[in-house]
Amino acid sequence: MSEMRLGPDKAAECLNCGAVGTGTYCASCGQERDIHGQTFKEYLVDISYDFLSIDGKIWRAFVDLMIYPGRLTKDYLVGKRASRPVPSRLFLVICVVVFGIAPYLFERMGMKDAAESSVSMDVLELVTSVSAKVGLPFAITPTIREALIDRASLAALISVLPLTIVLIIYRRPPQAMFNTHIAHAFHITGATLILGMIGSISMWYISPAAIAALWYAVQGYRSQNALNRRKVRKLGYWWLGGWLFSIVWIVLVVVVLRFTVDGDSMQVDGSTPAGFIALVPMSIMIASMILIFGFGAELFYVTRSVMSLANVSISSALVQGSVAVVVLVLVRGILVFATAYLL
Questions:
Q1: How does pLDDT run across 173-212, given as a tens digit for each residue?
Q2: Rounded to an integer, what distance in angstroms lies between the CA atom of residue 32 and that of residue 15?
Q3: What is the domain range of residue 19?
Q4: 9, 126: one domain
């Protein structure tokens, strides 16, 4: 005897909570009222939805997440949640793709060492070599390099909470609700993972992540009025001026304050108070170079996301985005160094 399927307009008792009602779903607990035997196709659809939420909305969410920063969080704010994947579930799906599927595909395509030779890693190597020349004791050892790659997934998960705290402090989104801030954190962290993954694919230092960074920056700049655009240009002038000042400062240290320099190697001795002060401007500029060239896509993504959720200028959003990205990098870096040397 075949099972009887209930029509959506026929009142019946919910098999889960006992509430009587009509419609496809129970108005009390949300369970489907029509619990019937499933075909193989229906079973696969349910399993995929329950575990990975792989249906139409997950793919639409991927597109909106990467092309329109902040859109998913805005939809979550206004209550469009049934048509969107749960932020935490979307983040977990992204983790599966980035740390499970992508490495397998890279290996099959002959790109096994893609992460090790990515633009971000090369920039980090360049910065550490420059820092060594000016006396800053920092280097990427093979142990640290391996930890940066192997511990990335755990570091990404742990970094969600500190990022949430930053978003709460800045009130992004402005509504003072923890669930909205952590939803924004999940969206940002998931997007940065995808940007980091596609950053592994590059040719002549041109990667999809670099193109995405330019896309986010141009879109943010074009959305501003003339006054705010001048502020952005002024920030750029200050940054270039900072580099010039740092170079002149180091030259003065080497030429004039030779007591802070190793006479044989002509390297600044950062262990002395004078040498430490001499290295401060260059250290700041090196840090800014890591942020812009190593994590530019993430920086401009967060900036654009903040702008879409709050009526702030791009210059203010850049500052807030910088803080958020620095927090993400620091949390992941601390975890990597801890696991590399303590475990």
A1: 987 788 899 999 999 999 998 988 887 776 555 677 888 9
A2: 9
A3: 1-37
A4: no
